Amino acid sequence: MKKLIITAILMLSAIYGAFADMPAIDKNIVSKRMVMVGFHATDYKDEELKELKQQIENGLVAGVVFYGYNIESRRQVKRLIAELNSHNRSFVPLMMAVDEEGGRVQRLTVDKGFVEEPTAQYIARHMTPDQAEKVYELTARDLADVGFNVNFAPVIDLNINPASPIIGGIERSYSSNVDTVVAYAKAFINAHRKYGVITCLKHFPGHGSSKKDSHQGFTDVTDTWNDIELEPFQRLISDGYADMIMTAHVFNGGIDPDYPATLSKKTISLLQDMGYKGIIISDDLQMGAIADNYSFEDTVKLAVGAGNNILLFSNYFFYEKRYPEKVRQVLGIQVN
Fold first, then answer.
1. 40 an active-site residue?
2. pLDDT tens digits, 234-285
3. Facing residues of 244 across strands?
């Protein structure tokens, strides 16, 4: 827990402090470390990683996100993370992040030497929160052992639409009941805090009522979203369980008639109204809901102006090695 607090403080002071109460984009106060990227290598000696290592040395990335194709075994990924960390010249730790929710969304699998977890829905139906915490401790221990310090989970979307192709349909939600979601999210977070792993509440302001998958394209929840979807976020923020929050790419005309949540200052300002002062990270900006509808330049300007502290580019859908430099160019910041 002590390690988690120290890491979080360092990240917050270095990243969030540059954005706090920012009324508009100001190139003089925008942090250099505002981009998180993915990559496609597995071997730390891979030539493909040369540019990423240089970006890390130059302090241009907040962290790195890993996918299943980056992970072959415990030994391999532990060595890879250590090698990337060795290029960090800052006192601020790099975020080494992964999506390890359980069920369909987990990158550390049995065939690679890790434990696997059931879906959130299964756990909420078949385990008590105390039992769930024990299961999640195994996950958190695996993450910490190989060097991950951020898990992009838990999902706290309410299961309002059980047929949602990206949430309820693949059992990523604990429940449609706020109390249940909060209880199991706390179990998840407590387990990770025991091993110094930062968690991330997602997807603000709620993706559980969607009828479409924002990975694939524009996702409008105007007629299905309910303000009860804010309650898990408010409860967990108030109770001190929000280490980091990820925005959703859903469009909700009732909150903002112009922009989807990730690009919407009106939406993200709701977190400030809840008393949240931590890191806000965008969902992957390569996803169809954003990439198919906004230019790269508009995406960056809108996302930063809306209040996102970290812009996530997975390099999962297509590969662009120079996102950190390109983001700074868009914002008019000199690239060293």
1. no
2. 999 999 999 999 999 999 999 999 999 999 999 999 999 999 999 999 999 9
3. 279
Burial-class residue 2 by CB neighbours within 10 Å (0-12, 13-18, 19+).
Answer: exposed
d(CA 201, CA 120): 14
CA distance 11 to 50: 24
Peptide bond into 324 cis (omega under 30): no
Does pTM surpass 0.85?
yes
Identify the CA nearest to 245 among candidates 196, 198, 303, 176: 198
Residue 98 to residue 65: CA distance in whole angstroms: 6
Q: Which two tokens stand for residue 248?
A: 């959703």
Q: Which two tokens stand for residue 145?
A: 């052992």
Kindly give the pairing relationship between strand 201-204 and strand 244-247.
parallel
Of 215, 249, 256, 258, the active-site residue reads: 215
**Correct CATH for 2-16+35-330 of 3.20.20.150, 3.20.20.300, 3.65.10.10, 3.30.70.2200:** 3.20.20.300
Residue among 288, 307, 281 at smallest CA distance from 250: 288
Opening angle at CA 301, ends 296 and 307, nearest 5: 125
Beta pairing class for 105-106 and 63-66: unpaired
Instruction: Identify the bridge partners of residue 202 per DSSP, sorted by sequence position.
Output: 155
Q: Alpha-carbon distance 65 to 266, whole Å?
A: 28
| Tokens coding 307 | 């209040």
Structure tokens at 240: 């001190």
Examine the residue annotation and report whether 207 is marked as an active-site residue of this protein. Answer: no
DSSP 202-222: EEET--TT-SS-TTTS--B-T
pLDDT in tens, 6-53: 455 445 444 444 333 333 333 333 456 899 999 999 999 999 899 999
Sign of the alpha-carbon torsion through 248, 250, 252, 257 = positive
Q: Is 8 helix (H, G, I), strand (E, B) or coil?
A: helix
Which residue type, as a one-letter code, is found at position 295? Answer: S
Catalytic residue among 157, 243, 283, 284: 283
Q: How many CB atoms lie within 10 A of CB 332?
A: 11
